[in-house]
Amino acid sequence: MKESRISILLGAAFLMATSAIGPGFLTQTTFYTEQLAASFGFVILITIILDIGVQLNVWRIIAVSEKRAQDIANMVFPGLGVFVAVLIVFGGLAFNIGNIGGAGLGFNVLFGMDQKLGAILAAAIAIGVFVFKEAGKLMDKFAQLMGILMILLTVYVAFSSQPPIGEAAAKTFSPDGGKDYFIAIVTLVGGTVGGYITFAGGHRLLDAGIKGKHSLPQVNQSAVTGIAAASIMRIFLFLASLGIVAQGLTISKDNPPASVFQHAAGDLGYKFFGVVLLAAAITSVIGAAYTSVSFIQTFSPVIQKYQKATIIAFILISATVFTILGNPVQLLLLAGALNGLILPVTLAVMLVAAYKKTIVGDYKHPLWLTVFGIIIVIVMAYLSIITFSSNVTKLFG
């Protein structure tokens, strides 16, 4: 029983981490390393601190209330849970289309397979996880295995690129002046704990029966482990990219992370990139589908009863849209803008819920977590509104 509980806690942590580590995560990290060089270490450090603040607030309140985020939101303000669920599902579906495309590209890199055929195969693998009788256990194990594989391959590439580790360490705590770090921090926070990702691990623990005040130490540990896993991947990808930048080599604008892997380790590195991209994309497909459906299953007994079938349908829709339309840029752009608004809204709701006895009973939420959470809400809300306005202007002129 103890071993099973540990597996669930690790599974929830890696579900969150691998949901975050998708094609966008890989591209963002290499892009900002090229822009900020060694000082990007400072951005990663601040992002890790903010990510931990978000996850500890959200996961703890889900655990003590023993309710999913949408039900908590409805108890704070009637109808708010439905609104949040719609945003989560729309954002999850849109980004899943991108994840399916990323997986197809991974198969293309590895085997020269047509991207759309690869996307269909990736969707079949993701569906296979949920067809399995013990889908929850298989999802946990798959997320752990893929997460560890991605990290190991990226570590190898990082050492192959021979990055200036001393400079990176120094500028993590004393970055160069005159650079815009704020937008990079917000982008990374949104990409690591934004949208559905915020709730992936918390909902998984709830489904597995790990809840209540007595489970808080384990919930804390699982949340921090998830952030740590995603951050380790980010750090080594940063170092790999920094090594290439420091050598004066050009990172391709078309596919920045592939360029880094290839420069660092040649053709083998390029194949490693294919494995990392494929693993990142498929685990993100699984995480997005599972978490998105968890947001609507309490609204309908039919969805509750046929949860696996609904998850499979979610993946099939994502794959169908990609094979017909490719990556629908406008849909992804709008979904990204909406996703940015989800984090401050849902975190604010959770902080209000933490002080409602009808939701959390006699639980006392730590004051430092509340203050930390309020700061994150204000900063993310301000910048998300600016980003949303900018994207809407681009879309609709």
UniProtKB/TrEMBL annotation:
Q: What is its main location?
A: membrane
Assigned GO CC terms: plasma membrane
A biological process term (GO) from this entry: iron ion transmembrane transport
Q: According to Swiss-Prot or TrEMBL, what is its membrane topology?
A: Multi-pass membrane protein
Any coiled-coil ranges, and where? Answer: none
From the record, give the transmembrane residue ranges: 36-54, 75-97, 117-135, 142-161, 181-202, 223-252, 272-296, 308-325, 331-355, 367-388
Give the record's keywords alphabetically. Answer: Membrane, Transmembrane, Transmembrane helix
- Supply the Pfam families for this chain: Nramp
Q: Which InterPro entries match?
A: NRAMP_fam
Cellular localisation: Membrane
A molecular function (GO) term: manganese ion transmembrane transporter activity
Q: Which PANTHER family match?
A: SOLUTE CARRIER PROTEIN FAMILY 11 MEMBER, TRANSPORTER PROTEIN
Q: What is this protein called?
A: Divalent metal cation transporter
Q: Which organism is it from?
A: Metabacillus mangrovi
